[in-house]
Every structure is written in structure tokens, then in C-alpha cells.
Design brief:
single chain; alpha/beta; Rossmann fold; ProC C-terminal domain-like fold; eight-stranded mixed β-sheet; 11 helices; amino-acid biosynthesis; cytoplasm
């Protein structure tokens, strides 16, 4: 599949990396052509050159406040009506995308940084303008980047928070675990490897199990054991409350 990525910031870069791993041909649009060169992809820096290129899907990863204006300018420059437009801005409604590109199939998806290694969690708010073969194309492209969860449009904000922001929260947890291991004498690199392995293994088990996270925790916390003492310490220092507060704050509450 031929895909244009408009905006090569952190998320745009992650998408490019994952799309390349998935065997797609990627074209980048950025005012800074050096970014595209570093990613080893073809690039343009004008809308006129962008619309002259041959691609099937266009991903918009520019800041949310610029999405509709950028899309309208690309359409005005002559964007083909066959191009499927995917916006990565949760705060921009599908109706706004349709208004900016009334003749194109449009929809909103919220990826996260792990798409760079095809391990992303992607929320998709399907729009009425994307049907039949176009819908299949959207799923094929996004599924090459990770797990795709179709959600209602009014759930995009919280889905984007869980998918998009949580990796940073988990990084904070991992960093704290590494620091504790180092404090007990473990080599930093070895601690990082062990923590990453534990998080990956725990996630894989949760994905494959029918048990809730609470039930899985219960399988590890033996009566009077070291694990339950650690869990109680997390509660004592407000770990759960901090997680709740972080997610709600990121979701705008």
C-alpha cells in the first residue's frame, strides 16, 4: 500500500517506521525535509507536490488545531477523491474532516508510539464515508501497525488516553523499578532488561488470559508473602490513586 504521512513529529515518525516494517511504501510531508531523509523515505514540502504523488491513504499527524486547515489546503491543491484520509487528532470530529474534504473517505484513528515496532494499540472511530473496500483498506493498513479497536467517536478521548498516554505512564513505572533495582546493587542495563521482560511477559499473559488483571494479581500474591506486602506498599503510597488521577488528567478531567 502507498501511504502519505503528513507531519513527521514523534507520532508521524513512529507511523513511518511501523509502516515501513509492514512493507508499505511511505511518502512523507514535512517542512523539514531532513526529517524524512533521516527516515529514509521520499518526501515533499509543498502541498502541490504532495497531491502530485501517487498514494492510497493519507495520515494526518499535525497538531489537532491545524488538522482541518491543513486538510482543506491539501484538498484545494488537488487531492484525489480516491485517497482515504486518516486523522490522528482525537479532538477533531469526523464531521469536521468531512467538511474539509467532502469528496474523500475520512475517519479518525488514535495510534500510540509502539506502532513504530508494529505493536501499537490503535483506536478507530469508523465514519460513514468509509465503506466497503475502503473500510478493508483502513483495517489492513492499521492492523499492520498493531491491535485495532473500533470505538464510538465520543470514546476517542479516553481511548486515546489509555492507548496514547499510558506508554509514558508505564515508562515511569519501569524507570522507578529500575532505580529500585539499582539501589539494591543491580547493574542498570541488566535491571532495564529484566524490567522490560517482566512488563512484556505480564502484558502477554493478560492478553491471552480470560482472567481480569485483579485475578491475575491474586495468583501471585500468596498469603503473608512478599508480593502482597509490596502491593500493600503501593496502596499505602497512593499508587492506584495516582494512576487514576494521571489518566483522568490526561483525558481532560
Amino acid at each position: 500500500m502507498k501511504i502519505a504521512v503528513v507531519g513527521l513529529g514523534h507520532m508521524g515518525t513512529a507511523l513511518v517506521q511501523g509502516l515501513k516494517l509492514g512493507g508499505h511504501t511511505v511518502l512523507g510531508y514535512s517542512s523539514n525535509v531532513k526529517k524524512a531523509a533521516a527516515l529514509q523515505i521520499s518526501a515533499v514540502n509543498t502541498y502541490e507536490d504532495l497531491v502530485k504523488a501517487d498514494f492510497d491513504v493519507m495520515m494526518l499527524t499535525v497538531p489537532a488545531k491545524l488538522v482541518t486547515a491543513v486538510l482543506a489546503k491539501i484538498v484545494a491543491a488537488g487531492l484525489s477523491e480516491k485517497v482515504i484520509v486518516l486523522s490522528a487528532a482525537a479532538s477533531v470530529q469526523n464531521a469536521d474532516l468531512r467538511a474539509a474534504a467532502p469528496k474523500n473517505p475520512v475517519t479518525t484513528f488514535i495510534p500510540n508510539i509502539p506502532v513504530a515496532v508494529q505493536a501499537g494499540t490503535i483506536a478507530l472511530a469508523a465514519d460513514e464515508s468509509v465503506t466497503g473496500q475502503n473500510d478493508q483498506v483502513v483495517h489492513d493498513v492499521l492492523e499492520s501497525l498493531g491491535d485495532v479497536l473500533v470505538v464510538k467517536e465520543d470514546q476517542l478521548a479516553i481511548a486515546g488516553t489509555i492507548g496514547g498516554c499510558s506508554p509514558a505512564f508505564i515508562d515511569v513505572l519501569m524507570d522507578a523499578m529500575e532505580d529500585a533495582a539499582v539501589a539494591k546493587g543491580m547493574d542498570r542495563k541488566q535491571a532495564a532488561q529484566m524490567v522490560a521482560s517482566v512488563v512484556a511477559g505480564t502484558a502477554q499473559l493478560a492478553r491471552q488470559s480470560d482472567l481480569s488483571a485483579g485475578d491475575l494479581k491474586g495468583q501471585i500474591t500468596s498469603p503473608g508473602g512478599t508480593t502482597i506486602k509490596g502491593v500493600l506498599a503501593l496502596d499505602q503510597y497512593g499508587f492506584r490513586g495516582a494512576v487514576h488521577a494521571a489518566i483522568l488528567a490526561a483525558a481532560g478531567d
